[in-house]
Design a protein that fits this description.
The structure is a single chain. The chain is about 30% helix and about 25% strand. The protein is of the alpha+beta class and about 210 residues long.
């Protein structure tokens, strides 16, 4: 084999190797690009999902926001004795702040250390929300025990605690407001009920 022939052979082998490397490199490059594109798409999808969760959290946070709801820091609770109806007391929520607040729903009412709250009388629900101006009051009637004894043996309670509601109907966070039982003691049984917050005493004691 001549020197010239050897040179042509080496050149051919070099060219073939270069083409092979270029082809492999191009394939790897396309595969790498495709993989990268897939990762970007996956990341974007994950980002959208995370964004949705964040929005949901924000919405939940908004639902839990107390807004203009009355609370322990702005309202004083008092439990008053009434002559009629029998076995009833009147809850009075007086706005002691300089701004109006809204008494949403009904009071979550407990007697002493009870875990469960008194049932609300649905028929007493007002048509409009009850806003309390500074110095003014909202009311809720409380049936403490059944006059005919149908509520069971019952017991005597010394303290009433009230938790206000948020605009969404959840218990307002924080410690409840409390009031002493009228006369120092109140007989309660399983029939205990409370009305919704209303803007007049008569409406509260109707039930």
């Amino acid at each position: 084999m001549t020197t010239r022939t050897l040179r042509f052979a080496v050149a051919a082998l070099t060219a073939t190797a270069a083409l092979t490397l270029t082809a492999c490199g191009g394939s790897d490059g396309e595969e790498g690009k495709a993989a990268k594109d897939e990762q970007v798409t996956a990341d974007a999808a994950a980002g959208d999902d995370m964004g949705g969760e964040s929005t949901s959290d924000d919405e939940n946070g908004q639902e839990q926001d107390k807004g203009d709801a009355c609370g322990p820091g702005t309202v004083k609770i008092e439990a008053r004795a009434v002559k009629s109806p029998v076995n009833h007391v009147l809850l009075v929520a007086t706005n002691t702040s300089k701004s109006p607040c809204t008494a949403y729903g009904f009071p979550f009412l407990r007697f002493d250390q009870d875990q469960a709250t008194a049932i609300a009388v649905e028929e007493s629900k007002p048509k409009d929300k009850v806003t309390i101006a500074p110095g003014k009051s909202a009311y809720a009637g409380v049936l403490a025990s059944a006059a005919d004894g149908s509520g069971g043996t019952g017991r005597d309670a010394k303290q009433l605690s009230v938790t206000f509601q948020t605009p969404g109907g959840d218990p307002l966070a924080g410690d409840p407001s409390s009031a002493g039982a009228p006369g120092g003691s109140l007989h309660v049984d399983d029939s205990a009920r409370t009305t919704y917050w209303v803007d007049a005493e008569d409406a509260a004691l109707k039930w």
